[in-house]
Please model this.
Amino acid sequence: MAGKLERPAFYALGRGRLGDLLTLLHLPYTLWHLSYFALGAAVAPKLHSDRLLWGLAAFGLAVGVAAHALDERHDRPLSTTISDRALLTMAVASLAGALAIGIAGVLSVSVWLAPLVLAGTLFVPAYNLELLGGRLHSDLFFAIGWGAFPAFTGYFVDAEKVALPGVLMALGCLAMSVAQRRLSSPARELRRRTAAVSATRTLLDGSEQELSLACLLRPLDGALAALSLAVCVTACALLAARL
Model:
């Protein structure tokens, strides 16, 4: 069955400057990945609220703004009307802001944050612009960069050491990011690269159900929306218990 889906993502809003901007930020996914940083911080021996807030700000700029602006500028997956120049300006300014926060953390918290700051700063353009022949633009590196890395960094910023709770939380967030990718990749294929679906599902009782793009997308989008909310609420609960 042919289907036309106006929205490039389940969270995409209408057209217009504000709609394009909010769509660009991928708010459910951004909050999801920021929650990984919070989860890492929540299992640290001592939770520093100032480090938590600055860390969330840095990852918000890097992951929420810079990464998505570069991704949109690279191949326009969201089809926004934001100009290439504006996207590049947003990306550079946001990444510079995140880097400045990281440098301040190195100077005020621990010099051992420097490798994490450098890795995060380099990974954003390398992944989203598909540099190095796109070798870093894979499910594995997505899970590492968007799942394990913020969780481990959130722990290390507060604990200032590598320990089992931080490693386990990083592995758990890595696995969650793998699950996200397994859901979001087929959803993107259906939304952005599929012109029509023609199929019929035959049930055991002999009845038939005609499948459509909307029918195939519904469980994927529903699971992604529910998981993004669940991870965010879980992080908030743990932070509330610690603060």
In short: Residues 17-242 form one domain. The mean pLDDT is 92. The helical segments are 17-24, 27-42, 49-75, 84-108, 114-128, 139-159, 164-193, 213-242. The longest strand covers residues 199-202.
